[in-house]
Amino acid sequence: MPANQLSKGERTRLALLMETRALIQEVGYSALRVDELAKRAKVAKGTVFSHFGDKDGLLAVIVGEEVMRLLEAINAAPPPQSIEAIPDALAPLIDYIASDRVIFDIMLRYSGATGDITNEIVAQTFYDQIDLCARWIAPLQAVGVIRADQSPALLAEGIQAFLTHVIALSFCALHEHPDRPVDALLPFLQAMMAPPA
Question: What angle is formed at CA 64 by the lines to CA 67 and CA 11, rounded to 5 degrees?
Fold first, then answer.
């Protein structure tokens, strides 16, 4: 819809989202402050809250949209042809979520996984990721690359669970972890998905 056909509230919401993206580029997710956002957008702080509830609600919109964009790009790329290629195919998504603890927290909290707060876009990204991985798995099962005694959907949920696990460990001070969580994912996938010997 052209900007001139949007209501004042819709224009304000879009302006807040654009300003938020610009601020994130400058200071990152963790350092984003609603006071600064309101000042730059030339609105009252309460306007931000009326549109998004709170800072995390605002970030859920930004994070959800970015994850959707990444999943679309991953989906458009050639599918992985082996278990070993799956982490690399998911690397843009994993690297983004692991780039800031705030992003990871938003993903978990607003997916509904850790409470009753949800964001429709964030929650949908979890389903889209499972669907994407299941579409990769089915043809690899047909040629014996991946175990065929479990459904593609179940194995795809396992990928998502291990992906969440390795990202969580990357933020844990008590565990040694590789520089990138994507590098920690492969052993879990091999153990879960390799065909029986």
Answer: 125
Give the whole-angstrom CA distance, residue 31 versus residue 122.
21
A 10 A CB-CB count for 135 gives 13
Query: Are the beta carbons of 67 and 96 closer than 8 angstroms?
Result: yes
For residue 28, how far is the Cα from the chain centroid? 16
Rounded to 10°, the helix 85-98/181-193 angle is: 140
Rg (CA), the chain: 19
pLDDT tens by residue, 67-125: 999 999 999 999 999 999 999 999 999 999 999 999 999 998 888 766 667 678 888 89
Instruction: State if pTM tops 0.85.
Output: yes
Reference 182, options 89, 113, 108, 107; nearest CA is 89
